[in-house]
Write the C-alpha cells for this entry.
Amino acid sequence: MANFYTDNPDLRNHLSHPLMKKIVSLKERNFEEADKYDYAPQDFEDAMDNYDKVLEVVGDICANIIAPNAESVDHQGPKVEKGRVTYADATQENLKACREAGLMGMAMPRRFGGLNFPITPYIMAADIVSRADTGFENLWGLQDCAETLYEFGNDDQRARYIPRVCEGETMSMDLTEPDAGSDLQSVMLKATEEPDGTWRLNGVKRFITNGDSDIHLVLARSEEGTKDGRGLSMFIYDKRNGGVDVRRIENKMGIKGSPTCELTYKNAKAELCGSRRLGLIKYVMALMNGARLGIAAQSVGVSEIAYREALAYARDRKQFGKAIIEFPAVYEMLSVMKAKLDASRALLYECARYVDVYKAYEDIARERSLSGEERADMKKYTRLADACTPLVKGMASEYCNQNAYDCIQIHGGSGFMKDYACERVYRDARITSIYEGTTQLQVVAAIRHVTTGTYKNLMDSYAEMPVKDSLKEAAETLKTLMEKYVAAVDKVNEINDPTFTDFMARRLVEMAGNIIMAWLLITDASRYSSESMEKSAKVYTKIAQAEVEKHSDFIANFTPEEVALYKEA
C-alpha cells in the first residue's frame, strides 16, 4: 500500500537531526513517565521509534484515505443549515480515521490523553496531511490551538478542554472581523462580564476557519471605551453552551473542504482565558506564531504534491516522439521546483526544532525555576524561532504558489482542466501566502532580524559547519553572497530612513531567506547520504546566487529619493 511518509526518505532524515536528542530529553524530562504510561518511551531511541511508527500511520491514512477523498471533498464541500455546518461526507470519513488512529492532540501531554509529541514530528504530520488534502489540514491542524489553551489556560480549563481535543473534538481561533482583518487591534466583538464572573460575547466574526468547531478561542474587546490592542482579551467558547451561529460559509477559490465561516455571537457564554487585556498583546501573538508554522508546513505539503504531479506527468506525456521530461525547458522547471521544495522543508524543520527547544523550556519553567544556563538557552532559541517563523511562512508559501503554477504549466492545456489534480492544487495553494498574515506582514515581522543581525549570525553558524567535498564550491558561493547581503544591509542601516528600510525590506528578507535556505540544504546534504538533497543544494545555490545578486544590485543603485517613483504606481 502507498504511504506518504515512507515514500519520502527526506522526512526521516529531518527527523533524525542531531538536535532531536536535546529536544527529546527536554520534552520527556529524562523519561520520567516511562513507568506511568505504557506508550511512553523508555529512552531516546524508543522515543524516535514512537515518532517513526506514528508517522507511518499518518502516511498510511493520508495515502489511502485522505488523498483519495480529496477530489470528492472539493466537489461536495461543507454546507450550512440552521446555523450549523455539516462537513462533506468524505471529510467526516477523514476525521473518523484520524480519531480512531489517535492522531488528535498529538502534541498534548499524556495526562490529558495526548501523545506528548514534540513540535517537529507533529509539523511533519501536518506536512504529510497537507500533501494529501490541503483543506483537510485546516481541520486536523487546528488541534494546534490546544497548545495556546495549554500555555495560557488555568488548570481547570486544561483539565476540561484538552482531553476533549485529544479525543477528537475540533477547534478554531475566532480572530478576524469584517472591519478587522490583519489589523486585529480593531476587533470590536464585545465581551461583557456578568456578576457571577462569566462573560457574554456579542458581535460578528468573519473568515473563521472551521468556524463551527467544538471549542473556540475568541479575541474580544473586554475593556469598555478602548479602541486598541490593550483592550482585548482571549476567551474560550464551548459550542455546547450555544449562542454562536454560522451565518454563512464563504464560497472560496480553494481549500473547499475547510468551512470558512461568518459567525454571529448573541449573548454567547464564554470564559476568560489567561489575564484580561493580554488577548492580542500576548496570547494571539503566540497563537499566530503556531498557526504560521502550521501554514508553512501546509505550504511544503502543497509544494510536494505539485512537484510529484508535475514529475509524473512529465515522465508520461510524449511529444515529438519522446517524454517531455527530456526537454531542457521542462527538466529545468522540475529541478527548480524540487530545489524550492527541499529548501522550504529544510527551513521548516529547522524552525520547528528551534520552537521545540524554547517551548520545552517554557513548560519546564511551569514546574520549577530554570537555571541561568537554561534561561540563556531558552532566550537563544526563542529569538531563533521568532526570526525563522515569519521567514519560513513567507518563503515557503510563495514557493508553494510558484510550484503549483509550474505544475499547471508542465501539464499544459490539460492542467487547466479539472481532470487533473493540479488544477485543485493550484487553487488550494493560493491562500497560503494570504491567511495567518500575508507575505507582506511576514516581511514586517522579519525585517528587524535583518537590521539587528539575527539572520547574519545564523548564516555565520552554518558557514562553520562541515561541508562535504562535492559541495565546497557551493559553500564558497554562499560566502560571497553573504558579503553582498552584509553590504546591502549596511547601506540600508546607514541611510537610516524608515521609509527606505520598509521599501527595501522584502528584498533584504528574501536575500536572507535565500542564503539561509541554501546553507541548510548544504549542511543537510553533507550530514545525510542523500543524492537528492545534494542535487537540490547545488541547484538552490544557483537560484540563491541569481536572487541575491539581483537584489544586491537593486539596493546598491537605489537612492531614498527614488522611492517616490513608486508611490503613484
The chain has a mean pLDDT of 96.
